[in-house]
């Protein structure tokens, strides 16, 4: 069974650069709500 870990990030200046870095680290953006980004990536033991 797949397992995921989750991360929240406040929207800041230069969000595109930050999202590109997080994507490189394996994070996937799944939602944006009230100025907060919600991300997930597959958890590796």
List the helices and strands and how they pair.
Blueprint: E1 4-10, H1 15-24, E2 28-33, E3 36-42
Antiparallel strand pairs: 1-3, 2-3
Structure notes:
The protein is α+β, with helices and mostly antiparallel strands. It has one domain. Helix content is 22%, strand content 44%. It is built from 1 helix and 3 strands. It has one helix at 15-24; strands at residues 4-10, 28-33, 36-42. The longest helix is centred in the middle third of the chain and has 10 residues, at 15-24. The two termini are 12 Å apart.
Features:
1 helix; alpha+beta; three-stranded antiparallel sheet; 3 strands; 45 residues; single chain; flat
Biggest sheet character: 3 strands, antiparallel
Which structural class should the secondary elements be placed in? alpha+beta
Distance between the termini: 12 Å
What is the H/E string? EHEE
Please estimate the helix content: 10-25%
Q: What is the number of domains?
A: 1
**Rg, nearest Å:** 11 Å
Number of H/I helices: 1
Give the neighbour order of strands across the main sheet: 1-3-2
Which runs of at least 5 residues are low in confidence (pLDDT < 50)?
none
Percentage of β-strand residues: 35-45%
Overall body shape: flat
- Mean of residue pLDDT? 90
Kindly state the number of beta strands: 3
Short description:
The chain is an alpha+beta fold. It is built from one helix and three strands; from the N terminus they run E-H-E-E.
């Amino acid at each position: 069974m797949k397992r995921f870990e989750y991360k929240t990030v406040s929207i800041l200046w230069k969000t595109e650069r930050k999202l590109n870095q997080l994507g490189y680290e394996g994070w996937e953006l799944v939602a944006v709500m009230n100025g907060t980004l919600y991300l997930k990536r597959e958890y590796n033991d």
